[in-house]
Amino acid sequence: MEEPQPHILKLVLAGMRHHTDSLHVQLVASACVFNLTVQELVLGMPLRLLGDVVQQLLTAMKNFPNHEQLQKNCLLTLCSDHILQVVPFDRYEAAKLIMMLLGNHEDQTVQRMAVAVVSILVSKLSTEEISELGAEAFIMKQLLSIVQQKASLGVVDSTLKFALSALWNLTDETPTACRHFIQCQGIELYMELLESYYSESSVQQKLLGLLNNVAEVEELRMELMSEDLVEHIVSLLINPVVEVDVIYFAGGILAHLVSVRGPVWSLDAELHSTVQEKLVSVCVCVSECVSPQYCNMLQSEGGTDILRVLSSHPDTHSDVKCLTENILKILERNLHPANCDALSVLNKAG
């Protein structure tokens, strides 16, 4: 089949709607849907028709939760960037349903597709929808269980990465989800993963991203006050071969823990000083060594205004003042290179 056949897809959809209780019809029809929407064919289908088809597939999955082949057929169709990103359907209900069904199946193919679909769906939800989904404790348990399974085998595959991404997104600005994560022994699991996947930067970034979400919740910071965890994060912060995205989240966690807001530092005082010193060093390093991405971020988040206040305040410690002035110069070079070039020429001419 070389051309999209929307008229045939409409007929298949009609059959699915008229025989929702027939496993045989749903099984054959879901296979037809996949073949009619595979690869480039899906791009030629009307979006509204695709939206109706997706809702019908989800209904079939709900009606026959224990039939593995039907679940596979439906997930095969859903594993499409075009469908997940563009087609109109209830992504919140879809993510919730697929997570509920995931507990019924141990098949690795079903698991891989389901986790991939959920991860992408969660990334498309609104903050309110993520909060509602994150409030479902069973979802946190399910995803952490998958991560635990993969970690016990020591593998790094798409299922592990998608599960970690989904967990990261679910806890973003969602204190309830962060609490569920802690209650499900997520911190203990993530501490193990930080050590066992030390050389996997893509995994480290996802682990630290979630822990940073936890650290953003003031009343939960005490849960991260573990000497082993803090020392490990410091080691990532100062490791010269660690990627900058890992450093960014490692620094974020530590900055929250030493912040004057939230719980009082409960660990060794010397470790507190070490964390502060390393954070200062990495501020300069990241500002100097990376692309303007983080400089733009610092400016857009109001960081440059804070630095200017620190630099000009009469009570600012001389070391801190020197640091802030250095960072401001680095920001100026990255954000306004033309101005710096012109100034350099004038200085040389003088």
From TrEMBL:
The keyword Transferase does not apply. It comes from the Eukaryota. InterPro entries: ARM-like, ARM-type_fold, ZER1-like_C, Zyg-11_UBL_adapter. The keyword Cytoplasm does not apply. GO terms for cellular component: Cul2-RING ubiquitin ligase complex. Pfam families: ZER1-like_2nd. Gene3D superfamilies: Leucine-rich Repeat Variant (1.25.10.10). Keywords: Ubl conjugation pathway. Residues 16-282 form the Protein zer-1 homolog-like C-terminal domain. Belongs to the zyg-11 family. This is Si:ch1073-82l19.1.
